[in-house]
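Figure 3 (text version): structure tokens given as input.
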């Protein structure tokens, strides 16, 4: 019998994020919103906050750059925006669902490598390699090694993503490489730091929206389902609750304890934009 490939929970999370975002909030991106003071924190303003985020990242693309590799290109809208500005953009996209969306949007305007960045193989070289909230998914060492390989001399690494801080305690929010580990590792590679900008404050507010959604929509739905099951199938429900008690406890803490909030994000995560220049003749 054929072994079925296990599905990756992070990939499923992104696919669900895409569906919910597109259907309910008309968002066109899979990254956080960048909340400026003049933009009211409201879920309906999320698309505008996400556009702000794209504009913020784009404003840090170095002058003179022409060719970009968008690693983890999501639905392809960020790449499209860049192409419409005159850049030549290739994409890396390991997720079949997201790649399909990106292909529909980009057509033949971009070459999409349907692969993990870790396994990417190409003779192409780029002026900028861009990680827009995708860096956290990629093995640190391979991300740096491959970027050196695929960048032109004096090319740039542009990363906008969140990292883990060294704060004590255990966060319910996963994701992100440890920031101190990243600094330590990249200092051993021929990359010169050009910019390091902290945007934790502007991005943490997304977690307030997430927490509101989980409390006001997620939790009531879970409670309704649980009520339905325990009144209609009491024995089966008890058995399932007992068998999966540890998993259920973990899920409750992770999603419904109220700890997934903006304050904790600012304690446990650091959202940063990094621009590094590859040193010449490496
Ligand atoms: C949070 S989404 C960001 C998407 C897009 N960059 C944006 O800003 O909307 C993360 C992206 O990283 C991609 N990704 C996850 N693991 C990856 C890997 N190992 N190599 C390359 N991309 C990866 C996902 O498929 C997805 O497109």
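Below: residues designed for each position.
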């Amino acid at each position: 019998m054929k072994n079925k490939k296990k599905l990756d929970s992070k990939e499923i999370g992104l696919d669900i994020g895409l569906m919910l975002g597109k259907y309910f909030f008309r968002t066109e991106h899979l990254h956080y919103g960048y909340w400026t003071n003049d933009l009211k924190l409201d879920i309906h303003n999320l698309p505008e906050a996400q556009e702000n985020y794209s504009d913020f990242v784009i404003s840090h693309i170095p002058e003179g750059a022409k060719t970009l590799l968008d690693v983890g290109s999501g639905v392809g809208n960020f790449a499209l925006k860049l192409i419409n500005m005159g850049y030549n953009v290739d994409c890396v996209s390991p997720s079949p669902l997201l790649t399909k969306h990106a292909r529909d949007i980009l057509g033949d305007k971009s070459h999409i490598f349907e692969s993990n960045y870790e396994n990417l193989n190409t003779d192409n070289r780029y002026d900028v390699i861009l990680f827009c909230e995708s860096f956290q998914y990629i093995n640190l060492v391979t991300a740096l090694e491959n970027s050196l390989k695929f960048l032109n001399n004096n090319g740039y690494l542009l990363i906008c993503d969140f990292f883990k801080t060294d704060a004590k305690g255990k966060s319910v929010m996963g994701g992100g490489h440890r920031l101190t580990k990243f600094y330590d590792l990249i200092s051993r590679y021929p990359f010169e730091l050009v910019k390091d900008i902290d945007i934790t404050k502007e991005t943490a507010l997304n977690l307030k929206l997430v927490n509101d959604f989980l409390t006001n929509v997620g939790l009531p739905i879970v409670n309704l389902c649980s009520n339905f099951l325990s009144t209609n199938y009491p024995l089966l429900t008890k058995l399932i609750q007992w068998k999966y008690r540890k998993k259920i406890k973990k899920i409750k803490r992770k999603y419904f304890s109220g700890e997934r909030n903006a304050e904790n994000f600012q304690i446990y995560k650091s959202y940063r934009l990094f621009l590094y220049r590859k040193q010449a003749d490496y």
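The radius of gyration is 20 Å.
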